[in-house]
Automatic annotation (TrEMBL):
This is DUF1414 domain-containing protein. InterPro entries: UPF0352 (IPR009857), YejL_sf (IPR023202). It comes from Alteromonas genovensis. Pfam families: DUF1414. The lineage of its organism: Bacteria, Pseudomonadati, Pseudomonadota, Gammaproteobacteria, Alteromonadales.
Length: 71
């Protein structure tokens, strides 16, 4: 998903693979996985982003997500 990042590809891939492996090991189906990931994103926005910036950042995230899944 990230295009230009301050994080290395190795760092990104390692963390992403841990998240995916955790979901798979838990037997989480698509709906549960999306619910969990959505709640994680909400938690990150609520705890790491100033209140006045949350809505804009959520919108930006949603736009990038939509672009990444276009066929």
């Amino acid at each position: 998903m990230p295009q230009n990042s301050r994080y290395s590809n190795d760092e990104f891939e390692a963390l992403m693979n841990k998240v995916i492996l955790t979901l798979e090991e838990s037997g989480a189906n698509r709906d549960l996985s999306l619910m969990v990931l959505g709640n994680v994103i909400t938690h990150i926005l609520n705890t790491q982003v100033k209140a006045e910036n949350r809505e804009a950042m959520a919108s930006q995230f949603a736009d990038v997500l939509k672009k990444s899944v276009k066929a």
